[in-house]
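Here's what a typical entry looks like (ParA family protein):
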Amino acid sequence: MDDRPLKTSALRADLFETLAQVEQGQRFLIERYQHPTAALIPMRDYWFLQMTRARAQRDKEPRMPTQRLVIANASGGEGKSTVARELAYSLALDGYRVALMDLDPQASLTKSLGLHDDPASPAHTEAATVGTVFSRDTPPPLPAPMHVEGVDIWPANDALNSVDSILNNDFARAANLRDALDAYLAGMERPYDFVLLDTKPQRTNFLTASVAAADHLLVPVSGVKGLENLDVLLKLVRVARTIAPDLSLRAFVPNRIREDVNHHKGLLEHLRTELSALAPVLPVIRDSLATMGAATETRQPAVLCKPGAKVSGDLRQTTHALVALLQGGRA
């Protein structure tokens, strides 16, 4: 949308109406004595500028190979989609080039970014999903991702339900997603720094293929239930390593935690004393219904729509700990 010139006197007279128009996407160039002095831009533009500036600085620095992170838990309700979304956008705020794959037919991640709000959105089509790579023995190329506020997204919809049927008949195609992602990254002039994969909860062949497309597994845990099927997930990892030999359980992510609640106190103690030998435990992400509710309403990640919220600070801290861990340190 074109910038619209606006006198300072008009801004004072119609401030609330002007801000409402900015919220809808209008940009205003504020003039005083016929000279531009400031601008009003939508928050989406602001975050794009912030990411662009951080990316320009990041591109001057030595870079790691693309880090492929899968967020998985064989138990449902542990916040996988939220963790994937928030980590992706937090990384983008730090200037990294980031892509997200929604591999859950329920499409919670896709919906949370508003990609299903428009019935005509390509996100509703099978062709937009990664499911197409399982259609042949030799995987066809990944479709072009959608672009949402500085992050590339491969969306999901219920068409992904067909992938398990395909893999049940021919498990050899379980390597197709990894092979297709390899080819996509190799064809990029400047590959992503991070690719995050959000997964379905049930242990199926599609979950195995999803985990095998990554190199690092992050396990979000929001309660004891999130650890009940850890043995199931570890067995799945062993199968996935036949496709991705270097795949590792990289970290546990305590998510939606209330540290004053005995249940969560016990959970954190168990993670830190009993399970830290398996993988480091990242900083705690607190429970915050208000902030995450606002994210749902605005169809934006919490780190963008509520950057000053305490849980957004937790997410930023977790992101930085994760990057340090991948660079060879500890969480």
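The first strand starts at residue 3 and ends at 7.

More examples are in the samples folder.
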